[in-house]
Design goal:
6-stranded parallel sheet, 18 strands, about 20% strand
């Protein structure tokens, strides 16, 4: 059994308390502090473990992309960033789209030191699996070959997925095709590609009674449609990624343009970026999800899209708290509770709260210990971060996975 005492943060309150985690990795007791425990903390904050609902671990049975990342290295990067579980996307060289390919990838995911939830890919003529899993749709071409070329193609396939959990990468394929010869990445993937795709995804979610999720929303225009749909009772939630909250068009130049290339692009104005931050704080955006997409620096120079983030998840969270006045409960909501509800739907274990019977995996932040991000700190196999050289106001003190201390600083 592991016992830990300190400032416990749940979605509804923060209190000084004691947590006891049993040998089965579940929380046995939450009660008053005694002053004697395996770990006694002072000012640090104990959160239900952070869960990242959108990462690309890169590993599949082909093993073609393992040089970028694999399940073990992704999990070590996650632990480094205070992430105790993640959900992995299916756009691999051999995507998990049926029972056989999904089960094969599940076996590989056992290499991970944190819990893994796998999305199954939705492609032309695919069908739902026999068991409950989340699905991912790439509406337009991104990284990999799992995508659709028109709205009609997508709807024809989704007719088979009534009532399923489907997450959407929203960039309209026809608009991407129309703009493919533009001079910059942002112009080739303009804001209307996202807003048009989101509007269509919302119609599909409503029509086919899907449990919908919009991935990495980057424009306030698209978010406005999502907020309206929620008010109308459409079952949809939405993610935002750190790079769309921290960077904007004024920070991109010819020297870093290739490095910061990502889909959807960092193309928004400072006003749009700040509005996304405010929407996350107000609860209009449900999840902070990184879209961790590791590629080598050589590949970035060749123009491939994606940014790695797992190592810096917890540090970035302290920036939201210190620079944008997110409360402890705000962070618990978007990093633990909401993603925990999503994760728990596909697991026998409950995530997202510090409560008896829930998973004994915790993220502990020291919001008063600044850290400058340097390459030597990183655990991701691609070995770089868009935040290198940036000092965050706080850091990850400890990551506990099922009662085991896996990181301690």
């Amino acid at each position: 059994m592991l016992s830990i005492e300190g400032n416990i943060v749940n979605i509804d309150k923060t209190f000084r308390g004691r947590i006891e985690i049993g040998d089965d990795g579940l929380i046995l007791r939450v009660g008053q502090p005694t002053g004697v425990a395996d770990v006694v903390l002072k000012e640090e904050l104990i959160f239900p473990g952070f869960i990242d609902l959108h990462i690309h671990a890169r590993e599949d049975v082909s093993q073609k992309w393992n040089y970028k990342e694999d399940f073990n290295s992704a999990s070590l990067a996650g632990i480094n960033g205070g992430v105790i579980a993640f959900a992995d996307m299916p756009n691999n060289p051999l995507p998990p789209t049926d029972e056989f390919s999904y089960s094969a990838k599940e076996k590989l995911a056992k290499k991970s030191e944190v819990d893994v939830l796998l999305y199954a890919g939705v492609g032309q003529n695919t069908k739902p699996l026999d068991k409950a899993v989340p699905y991912k749709v790439f509406m337009g071409q991104s990284v990999g070959e799992l995508f659709f070329e028109s709205q009609n193609e997508l709807e024809k396939t989704l007719e088979n997925y009534v009532g399923q959990s489907v997450s959407f990468h929203c960039e309209d394929p026809e608009i991407l095709e129309q703009n493919k010869n533009q001079s910059t990445h942002g112009q080739r993937r303009p804001p209307e590609a996202e807003t048009t795709a989101v509007d269509f995804a919302l119609r599909l979610i409503k029509k086919y009674n899907l449990e919908g999720k919009i991935c990495h929303c980057s424009t306030i225009g698209a978010l406005a449609g999502i907020i309206t749909a929620k008010k109308q009772g459409v079952k949809v939630t939405v993610e935002v990624a750190p790079h769309h909250l921290y960077f904007d068009e004024l920070m991109i130049n010819e020297q870093n343009r290739k490095m910061f290339q990502v889909n959807p692009p960092i193309r928004q104005s400072p006003e749009n970026r700040l509005a996304l931050i405010e929407a996350l704080k107000k609860g209009e955006i449900d999840y902070l999800a990184t879209d961790h997409a590791p590629h080598t620096l050589a590949e970035k120079e060749q123009g491939i899209s994606g940014l790695p983030h797992l190592d810096t998840y917890g540090c970035f969270v302290t920036w939201l708290m210190k620079e944008h006045q997110f409360s402890f409960q705000d962070i618990a909501r978007v990093c633990s509770f909401n993603p925990g509800k999503f994760f728990s739907r596909f697991s026998k274990i409950q995530y997202g709260k510090i409560e008896v019977g829930y998973i004994g995996s915790l993220t502990i932040l020291d919001i008063n210990k600044p850290v400058k991000i340097e390459k030597r700190m990183l655990k991701t196999k691609c070995n770089w971060s868009p935040f290198e050289g940036i000092t965050f106001p706080g850091s990850v003190k400890m990551t506990i996975i099922k009662g085991k201390i896996c990181k301690q600083s």
